[in-house]
Amino acid sequence: TAETAVAAASTAGAAALALTPFGTQIIQALPHVDLRICLLQAGASLFASIFGFGDAVIAVPLLAVLFHFEATQAAPLVVFVTFFLTAANAVADIEGGIQQAAGRWSTSAAMIGGAAAGVPIGVSALVQVEPWAIRAGVGSFLLLYGLYDIFGSESEEMPASEEAKLASVATTIPYGFAAGFLGGAIAEPGPVAVVLGKARGWSPPTLRAMLIRFFLPVQILSLARFNAEGLLSADIVAQGAAALPLVLAASAAGTTINRKVDPEAFSDVVGGLVAGLGLLCLSTAYSDFLE
Length: 291
Prior knowledge:
- The protein is mainly α.
- The protein contains 14 helices and no strands.
- Helices cover about 85% and strands about 0% of the residues.
- The radius of gyration is 18 Å and the shape is globular.
- The N and C termini lie far apart (about 50 Å).
């Protein structure tokens, strides 16, 4: 399976990394990982595999509220783990012909091009802005997105040939930039991409394929910037590596569930959950601001 292939590649990479000084630091940090965080990330990955996105939407605010992880810790951890999840899903999609069927390659190129400019700015904001302000931004964004998910209307599907036109490609770039900025700042590029997908009436299979195709390069760019800023510490990588077996198992389970149920039937519940997490983040940000 795709999960098995990614797990094997991850194991080989980990073995090579262990021979380096940084790898030694990671090994020394492994006994100190928090199993509760591993379970949280597995739950977030299960959610994401069922609904097509949402691992960061669930994990980032809960890491802040439950484990007092600031965004500079939560964002690299979440992106590190979800990169492997996205890679597994991408391999499965390619094997199943799903990516080829989704098409819209010019739209993806425009989104990725915009994100390439947005990610570095987002990571700079992550490093420079006060933690309570970042958390308030996360909360506001999640609240607005949750309300949009509940009350926003669906559009008719735009034909792929129409999306390939220059005007459509040009209007896609700002979405990519905004998604890239949020991916770098708070590890959450998904909601903006979902808004674009809903505006163009993508079917659930097309939306899921487009998200995976977009997330993978954004996560690579984000990890490179996190590393350049010194945010990918040995402790973060060790915590992420410990979570990977559970995350990949949860991903496989979520994919199975996704094929048996209609995620759209639960869209209002998902929107309410996201809005509730946004309110929780705003509450804790306000408390920290007063201290």
